[in-house]
Amino acid sequence: xxxxxxxxxxxxxxxxxxxxxxxxxxxxxxxxxxxxxxxxxxxxxxxxxxxxxxxxxxxxxxxxxxxxxxxxxxxxxxxxxxxxxxxxxxxxxxxxxxxxxxxxxxxxxxxxxxxxxxxxxxxxxxxxxxxxxxxxxxxxxxxxxxxxxxxxxxxxxxxxxxxxxxxxxxxxxxxxxxxxxxxxxxxxxxxxxxxxxxxxxxxxxxxxxxxxxxxxxxxxxxxxxxxxxxxxxxxxxxxxxxxxxxxxxxxxxxxxxxxxxxxxxxxxxxxxxxxxxxxxxxxxxxxxxxxxxxxxxxxxxxxxxxxxxxxxxxxxxxxxxxxxxxxxxxxxxxxxxxxxxxxxxxxxxxxxxxxxxxxxxxxxxxxxxxxxxxxxxxxxxxxxxxxxxxxxxxxxxxxxxxxxxxxxxxxxxxxxxxxxxxxxxxxxxxxxxxxxxxxxxxxxxxxxxxxxxxxxxxxxxxxxxx
Length: 466
Description:
The chain is α+β, with helices and mostly antiparallel strands and about 475 residues long.
């Protein structure tokens, strides 16, 4: 990421600098060359004024126009020719055509007054022609022409100098861009490097550590979410460890009891009274049933894993399904005089896996009975709309503490461990229920207040979609 940020900043800097420098160079190079030509034209116009002032007597010893013309040509590193209106050359700084006649198409245009100046390229030189106009008269008249021939290299020298300066600036800006990219990439990724360092530390075996909250709001939110995941993973790991310990104890206790009972029967030999033999055998059967409950819950949870679950979907009458569950659990409720109430607001038929959903709803209703007050009540209601059906299981029981409500659906978690053992709970019932609801693409919610009862609400689609 640091490298990508660095390269992105560098590429953007190079692109912007090169584009800007090219546009700047194209614009100012042309302008600089034009300014150079304008300067030469101004000098030639000054010379034209001086020539008119001496009536073209340039070589007359009474004035210094000839020397000034030579100095101007030398300053321009070129050649100056002064031509009268009769096309006779009265001054040539190179003396090649002194007192000779010169005519060309460009000179004709100047002499006729068609052009105020003509700039043309002649080989490696630039030729500039301007008219020599009379002074003082209202009617302007062309008296001659000044022709300046300057090396083209002198004209473009300004552009070349600007190009060199531009190249220096381009290099300077690119170096600045590289420095800015390096600093920016380092600064933007420092928080991620810190997070990566913490994650490496955690992955090396320190699972109980948390990631330091650093950086901007988005990074802080990400770190907070990761810490929540780590905290949940730690809670789950603690619950699993506790569950392993509890299950080991739960499984070992029945085995120990059965061994003691069996040893007692063996020690008494053939003299065991039939009543005592029957009593011991009933106790052994009860311990076997207790182990079977624990093992069955574990197997149910494995089968309801959402990724591996295979559903047998069929159209089921939910009203009849709830009536069957309530009928089966009524004897358990009757032992503590708990009233079971079923409210069906409308007939509901849905596409579900009957076995798995029966297990989920049975767990909810059975928990409502187990963790209820004597002479209490359990109310089960069924309703539906055009898309979902809803099952609500409310009770008048002990309720669930607020700090435990976020964990009751976790595997192996039990709110009251002592009471769970008394009622035969393994801490897997609600985890099984939640998984069964999730594999049906549904959801389950919990509302509870300690000492005032608990309400579970299940929402499941009427039509199953894989």
